[in-house]
Amino acid sequence: MKLERLLTMIMILINRKKVTAQELAEVFNVSVRTIYRDIETLSCAGVPVISQQGVHGGISLIDGYRVDKQILTKDELTSLTIAIKSALTTYEDSHAEAVLEKLTSIADDHVKQSMDHLFIDLSPWGPNILFKEHITILKSAIENRHCVSFTYSTTHGELTRRVVEPHTLVQKGKTWYLYGYCTLRMDFRLFKLARIKNLMQEDLHYERREINLSELPWGKEWYQPENVVDLVISFDMAVTTLVEESFGVEFVDHKQAKINISIPEDEWLYGFLLSFGNRIKVIEPPHIRDILQKRAQEIVQLYKNPDNS
């Protein structure tokens, strides 16, 4: 632990040029006295650390102290930094933050500017405190091979208490999932994080089961042939951009203002189609039209009710 702190401290000093002992103490959650002992250790090890007193003082490295930058090319360094920054938008990881600090410290001005050319924010819109907390808990449970327990809500609102062996965090489209072995169902399941409540990491350990992530096992569960429906949809040209974003430009026939797409049929699909209001119209198949018509009528009746409660 101390070795990791010392290495990270060197990278911080390379990157920031000068930092106070109090700032370092807050970063590592240790006392200022511990920081000064670490500085003495670095000096004894031959690292040229200097400490200056006064208002503009602080801890720094002698000018000219450098580390080898040839481990990664500039493009590799930029790509790796962008990836870590993106990951840190969804969960807290002190190790990833330390690596980011080290990578930034060995980057020249050109690379640092390139790092700002692309930023991928994987977190949802709005406050995301609970979302980050769940991601952090699940990541820790996966790394330490601890089971997790939570209350899970199905699409029909049914609540069940689950104990799961967490294997993989999955981002599919704009949604995050947990892929793990459910002890209730005695099989692997894909759990939508938005439906998980009262998440807890348990003391119960598990042996990781063999899975082949290259085959995307969660894709098989979702896209079963018997659940897929072939949709033909007409749309208002005024929402062409929205349609392209939502369905994919490759499925849009701009000349006929139609969408042709094969997609699993479930509760999510009905709600998704209804969210477009009167901007789209399902042409095929007939049973989807009937379902949407019935639900639209129920919505109308709901708002016709004079009771505003």
Blueprint (SSEs and pairs):
Blueprint: H1 2-16, E1 18-19, H2 21-28, H3 32-44, E2 49-52, E3 58-61, H4 74-87, H5 94-105, H6 109-115, H7 129-144, E4 146-153, E5 159-172, E6 175-182, E7 187-192, E8 196-205, H8 217-222, E9 228-235, H9 240-247, E10 252-253, E11 258-264, H10 267-274, E12 280-284, H11 286-304
Antiparallel strand pairs: 1-3, 2-3, 4-5, 4-8, 5-6, 6-7, 9-11, 9-12, 10-11
Helix pairs in contact: 1-5, 2-3, 4-5, 4-6
Note down, in words, how this protein is organized.
The chain has 309 residues and is of the alpha+beta class. It has 4 domains: 2-61, Winged helix-like DNA-binding domain superfamily/Winged helix DNA-binding domain (Arc Repressor Mutant, subunit A, Orthogonal Bundle); 74-115, no CATH class; 129-222, SH3 type barrels (Roll); 225-304, no CATH class. Helices cover 41% and strands 25% of the residues. The protein has helices at 2-16, 21-28, 32-44, 74-87, 94-105, 109-115, 129-144, 217-222, 240-247, 267-274, 286-304; strands at 18-19, 49-52, 58-61, 146-153, 159-172, 175-182, 187-192, 196-205, 228-235, 252-253, 258-264, 280-284. Strands 7-6-5-4-8 form a 5-stranded antiparallel β-sheet. A hairpin with a 4-residue loop joins strand 10 (252-253) and strand 11. Helix 1 crosses helix 5 (94-105).
Features:
single chain, alpha+beta, SH3 type barrels, 4 domains, 4-stranded antiparallel β-sheet, 12 strands, elongated
Overall form: elongated
- Report the helical percentage: 40-55%
Low-confidence blocks of residues:
none
Largest sheet: 5 strands, antiparallel
Secondary-structure class:
alpha+beta
Q: What's the CATH class of the largest domain, please?
A: Mainly Beta
SS summary, helix count: 11
Radius of gyration from the alpha-carbon trace, in angstroms: 27 Å
Our measurement of the CA-to-CA distance between the termini, rounded to an integer number of angstroms, reads 58 Å
Give me the count of strands.
12
